[in-house]
Amino acid sequence: MFRYPDIDEKILNMAAGCEKRLADVYKEADDISEANQYKVLKSFINNRVSESDFAAGSGYGYNETGREKLEKVYSDIFHTEDALVRPQITCGTHALYLGLSSLLLPGDEILFITGKPYDSLEKSIGIQECPGSLKEMGITHSITELIDGSEFDYEGIEKAINERTKIVYIQRSKGYGDRLSFSPEHIGKAIAFAKNIKPDLIAFVDNCYGEFVDYDEPTDHGADICAGSLIKNPGGGLAPMGGYLVGRRDLIERCSYKLTAPGLGKEVGGSLGILKALFQGLSLAPSVTANAVKSAAFAAALFEDLGYAALPAASDKHHCIVEAITLNSPEKINLFCGEIQASSYVDSYVKPVGADMPGYSDSIIMASGAFISGSSIELSADGPMREPYIVFYQGALTFEHGRYAVMRAAQAVGESD
Ligand SMILES: *Cc1c(COP(=O)(O)O)cnc(C)c1O
Residue 37: in which H helix or E strand, if any? Predict the structure, then answer.
């Protein structure tokens, strides 16, 4: 490994030890990347993606062949009937809310079976009051907690499902939770269990941070619909904005009517010249995701060696790109995030501090010196400023970049002990 002049000998030697230990983990990430690369390439070839598909549409965006092909490519990769992949879907939260608000009607209930959903959804659902929430529209929710942060509460799920339950909702990635992320197979077991109780349930998966981390996707294991953000894994670092939904045709149709208007649906929505970035980013996404997984495993190993708990542990299988490291103090979160920011290509001179963010109730610190604002497939670290002070590390686009930044963070946190 390169002897970085600004990383001290102690950390460099620890890092070399981590590299040895992680050989099998890296190999598996590369194997998965190769299989996913093939899947993505085949879908481009089968759909005859051509240079003319990159042309910029405007206005209503009727007959944008590139947009239609991109959605075909997404549905082929996820093995679904249809897809909605749009710059007009502004972020992951928007994709999820779009899906839920399209599929649920007054009187329906949604059951969250991976505990309380991701922080930014609390207002969407109405866990916190907000105009436009599902609650305001007469849609109720219930939640079953995970057992020991790693298994579904099957008994609780059975009790919670009632005649009004319409959606069973699974969050693949831990988000800001202190738990493991789920493999698509494991998600599939819970879906099968729930559908056995009530066959017409819609299985809805928050796939944020999970795309291309495993060989399969939740839609290969019974999910009826999945949603995510294009400035995370599937955008490959090149998508400048956007979100996606993939799933059953009737469900995607409802979502398209909510995104634009009933009757218009997928027919409108100019892509304003970003299609090339969405296609090219998708072509890179399997490899970029593997770089992020390897960087996450490296962070786990190095911080474990320094005496901190990492989830997933260095030797655990990763099912999303997030590495959660319990640092136990706000000062250490500041140090960690400060070094990630200082190791970024953009805005390296900026010092991140905790602040209120739209959609989140705790103060959140975010280190992100990204080419695409807020893109967390690029090198990034963030976390809510609350006990037990866990920092959530994601990215980077290249493994070398991720590894360097993690060593700097380890050096700063290690020196503060
Ligand atoms: C990132 C993320 C979201 C959505 O977040 P946005 O910042 O709105 O894109 C939702 N769920 C999980 C698990 C996430 O990681």
Answer: helix 23-46
Query: Which residue has 């970003």 as its token pair?
Result: 274
Per-residue pLDDT of the chain (417 residues; tens, 9 = 90+): 899 999 999 999 999 999 999 999 999 999 999 999 999 999 999 999 999 999 988 889 888 999 999 999 999 999 999 999 999 999 999 999 999 999 999 999 999 999 999 888 999 999 999 999 999 999 999 999 999 999 999 999 999 999 999 999 999 999 888 899 999 999 999 999 999 999 999 999 999 999 999 999 999 999 999 999 999 999 999 999 999 999 999 999 999 999 999 999 999 999 989 999 999 999 999 999 999 999 999 999 999 999 999 999 999 999 999 999 999 999 999 999 999 999 999 999 999 999 888 777 788 999 999 999 999 999 999 988 999 999 999 999 999 999 999 999 999 999 988
CA distance 198 to 164: 11
Pairing verdict, β 243-247 and 309-311: unpaired
- Measured at the alpha carbon of residue 338, what is the angle toward residues 10 and 117, in degrees to the nearest 5? 110
In the reported structure, the alpha carbon of residue 381 is separated from the centroid of ligand 1 by a whole-number distance in angstroms of 14
The ligand 1 atom nearest the CA atom of 376: 1
Q: Is 307 helix (H, G, I), strand (E, B) or coil?
A: coil
- Closest protein CA for atom 9 of ligand 1: 92
**Shortest CA distance to 323 belongs to which of 297, 286, 305?**
297
Residue to mutate, 96, 118, 172, ligand 1, most ligand atoms under 8 Å from C-beta: 118
- Rounded to the nearest whole angstrom, what is the distance from the C-alpha of residue 306 to the centroid of ligand 1? 29
Which helix (H) or strand (E) element contains residue 185? Answer: helix 184-197
CA 190 remoteness from chain centre? 20
